[in-house]
Fold this protein.
Amino acid sequence: MTDEQPKATSRAESIGDVEHIRDIIFGAQMREYEQQFQNARRDLERLQREIDGLADRLADQDSSQNKKLQDLRREMRKADDGLRHELRETSQKLTDEKVDRAVLGELFIELGTHLKEGGSIGDLLRGLGGLEQD
């Protein structure tokens, strides 16, 4: 055992010496690489936070745009319904107020006959006024 102890100690010292030599030779480079890796890691984490923030903003804007689109659709539907209602009312009013062609033709025939027989328009109008009072 005594032979093995000096060998183990010698081996440990030689490994320690190799580590010390490696640190002397590559230590500055390794520290520089480690610093670069830490900087890159920090940059990646910062970029990831920015991406997450942008994704949240985009989701908020998407939600806002969808709400505005629904509001516009609702307004357009309401305006369309209003225009349709107004068109129906106008159509109904025109239907109620228009003169029937047959009635108008009969009126012209009666007017023509009355004038042909020597009557005046004033007499015809008084006659129509009397009919309206009945």
The mean pLDDT is 83. Helices lie at 4-97, 101-116, 121-133. The radius of gyration is 52 Å. Residues 30 and 120 are 123 Å apart (CA to CA).
